[in-house]
Design a protein that fits this description.
The protein has 8 helices and 7 strands. With 198 residues, the chain is an alpha/beta fold. A hairpin with a 6-residue loop joins β1 and β2. The structure holds zinc ion.
Length: 198
Amino acid sequence: MDLYSGYINRLIEELAGLPGIGTKSAQRMAFHLINLPKERVQRFAGAILEARENVRYCKLCCTLTDQELCPVCANPRRDKSTVMVVENSRDLAAYEKTGKYEGVYHVLHGAISPMLGIGPGDIKLKELIARLAHDVNEVIVATNSSLEGETTAMYISKLIKPTGVRVTRIASGVPVGGDLEYIDEVTLLRALEGRTEL
Ligand code: ZN
């Protein structure tokens, strides 16, 4: 039985497809949206479209940016010989907030997960390996301490070790399964300083 209009159902379906949004929340959001003034909805829809059209991957580190190079890669004072590998742009932002890390990053946009069918070819690993040819001394693997994050760390280590580049892993003071973005700055810095050889 179609309780609402087909339009609303479609909207609910789209919203429910977003990460972390269940059917109940999607319904609440849908009814909120259709009750907003039309201009607000237009602004909202426009923001989504414009972000999608203008945001792209940084040519070097693959983080999301609207320039060819992100602000970190474009900064001549950053140490390009140290590359910290993170799972997503939010993790990068978490480390940037500490203001203490002087190297650059590489954003994988995911982690290897055999269970979810995400293999090495589905994340930005090729791009990482390509960067190693340009005077990289150390790769710091800062993937999450979840099973996927650890699997990815081991994979990266095996891939890079033969090239002679130093590979380290941030200390696991970070709670298991914890997303880097939720961890406070002091803990992040401690994890970075306590990193060990992989
Ligand atoms: Zn970049």
